[in-house]
Design a protein that fits this description.
InterPro entries: FBD. This is FBD domain. The chain has helices at about 10-15, 30-45, 60-65, and strands at about 20, 50-55, 75-80, 90-95, 100-105. It is of the alpha/beta class and about 110 residues long.
Length: about 110
């Protein structure tokens, strides 16, 4: 398995990213990859209010909830299987990254 370099953190993650929805295809069974992706956002987003994950994170939810958060008010929630909407006023689109979905912030 190829290692992803997640050491780069965009400035917007540190200053303004408040809501993230992670959608990993249910066919991705690599627990370390899912956990690493959640850790990346939780540890790098200073003003993160909510990290929403889909049902494929079910096997790592306890570990995800225990990750020390950069934003003390950050809430980690699992979305219902049919839930696809992020309606928090943010312009987020999913982008495929190494068989995983991560949000892309659109310039407004």
């Amino acid at each position: 398995m190829e290692k992803n370099n997640l050491s780069f953190v965009p400035q917007c993650f540190q200053s303004s990213l408040e809501f993230v929805q992670l959608k990993v295809p249910i066919t991705v069974t690599e627990t370390p990859s899912k956990l690493q992706l959640a850790i990346y956002f939780i540890r790098n987003c200073v003003v993160l209010k909510k990290l929403m994950v889909n049902e494929s994170f079910g096997n790592v939810m306890n570990e995800v909830r225990k990750i020390p958060k950069r934003a003390s008010a950050c809430e980690v929630v699992m979305l219902a299987p049919a839930c696809e909407d992020v309606s928090h006023g943010s312009s987020l689109l999913p982008v495929i990254y190494k068989d995983m979905f991560i949000p892309k912030i659109l310039d407004q």
